[in-house]
Structures are given as C-alpha cells and as structure tokens.
Amino acid sequence: MKNFLFELCVESLQSARAAEAGGADQIELCADLQIGGVTPSIDLMRTTIEELAIPVHVLIRPRGGNFVYSAQELIAMRSHVDQAKLAGAAGVVLGVQRADGSVDVERSRSLVELAHPMKVTFHRAFDTAKNLSEALEAVILTGADCLLTSGGKPDVLAGADTIRRLHEQADGRLEVMAGGGLTLVNLVQVVRRSGVSCLHGSLTGSPQNGVSGKKRAVRDTAMLEADVQEAVRLLAAEMKLRMTSP
Q: pLDDT tens, 102-127?
C-alpha cells in the first residue's frame, strides 16, 4: 500500500493529464494561478473529472486577495461547492477567515458540511494566521480532512520545522499536507524536516536540464510529466528510507 501522496496544482486539462501520466495521486484544479488561484469554470471541472482516473479536488475561491468574504461571496462559494459535487469531484479546497486573520470556524464548517461526502482541504489562508497552533485547532473544528500549509512561511522549506510541529500537534485528527514553493530541489529536505508524507505543489520553480523555472514559465506537457515523475520518485525513495531507518 502506498504510504505517501503527491498532489499537483493545475489550471488546465493538459496539465491535469500530464499530472496523471506522471504518477500524481490527485490534483487540485483551479484557475488564475498567477493570483493564487480561483474556482475553475464548471466546464473545466466537468471535463477534467470525466477524463481523469485520479481524484480531482476543486479550489473554491471566488476571487483573489484576502479570505474574508462577504455574504454574497459566501453564496457564490456554496454554489461552487454544489457544482463541484455535481461534477463528481473527489474533494474541494477552501478556507474562510475573520477580519482579524483568525479562522472563521462557523462559515468554514458550513462549507465543509455542504461538501460532504467530498473530502475538504483547508488551504493556505491558514498561513496568514497570527497564531498557527491556535489556527490548527480551529481548522480541526471546521471538520476539514486536510490542512495545506507552508508553515506560515513564504515556502515549504522555510516553514518545514513549523510544519513538523503542526503535524505532531494534529496527531492524526486531520492530515497535514506541505505545500507552497515546493520544487524538485527542495522536496527531499522538506520531507525529511517536516516529517509529513503528503506534498502539494505546481513544481513551477523546479529546474530541468539546466533551465530555471522562471525561464520556462510555460512548460510543455512532456516536461511537466517528467517533473511529476521525478517528484513521485523522490518522495517514494524518502518514504522507503523512513520506513527502513532505525
């Protein structure tokens, strides 16, 4: 049985296909990654879910910017959750905050309950909280199945030690997934330092054949598939090492 999970964040059907071909366990589907991602169109949802055999988790975010939403925006988010459910998504990715940056447990929980039986990941809105330990307990109260976090830092490597503490604090009450700035270069260090076995990323900063991620902002599907294959290989090797180490 597989003892790890790799999720690729994508915004097109072509990238989703490459993720599956490369061995990703699931995808997060969104639109407009340049602004951090928003909910994809219903057409993209349906087509991607129909074509892929691996689970598709849909981002529920009505706009870029902060995660403090108006009543109208919450109505839109509920509609998007319903759309994802009807399209056959395996899960949704969401999060709502209060004006002070704390987790809005009540509103987030209402979305989690609406999403059932889909899985729910609370996204990196979490990383802007002032107290991550308190925020983790709040996320658990929402009923979310998974927390995506960079440990409150700009990237997962910088936040790896905090991710480990959060993982230990969660103690199985929800899955902690490391994500944000993940690359093929830092993946092994992130796994070793964080102690988690679930990773998320778009791998856009991963060098390949001596070419930096910034210089190849638009990757062809073969290149993306190769990146995913390498990420999965590295993660599998680290999990095997973890299992055999005394």
A: 999 999 999 999 999 999 999 999 99
What pTM, to 2 d.p., does this model score?
0.93
What is the Cβ-side half-sphere exposure of residue 99, based on CA atoms within 13 angstroms? Answer: 1
One of 3.20.20.380, 2.40.420.20, 1.10.540.10, 3.60.21.70 is the CATH number of 5-244, namely 3.20.20.380
> How many other C-beta atoms can be found within 10 angstroms of the C-beta atom of residue 91?
21
The token pair that represents 130 in the structure block: 């002032």
CA distances in angstroms from 41 to 17, 30, 60, 161, 193, listed in the order given: 17, 8, 11, 36, 37
Quick count: other Cβ atoms within 10 Å of Cβ 187?
A: 23
- How many Å is the Cα radius of gyration of the chain? 17
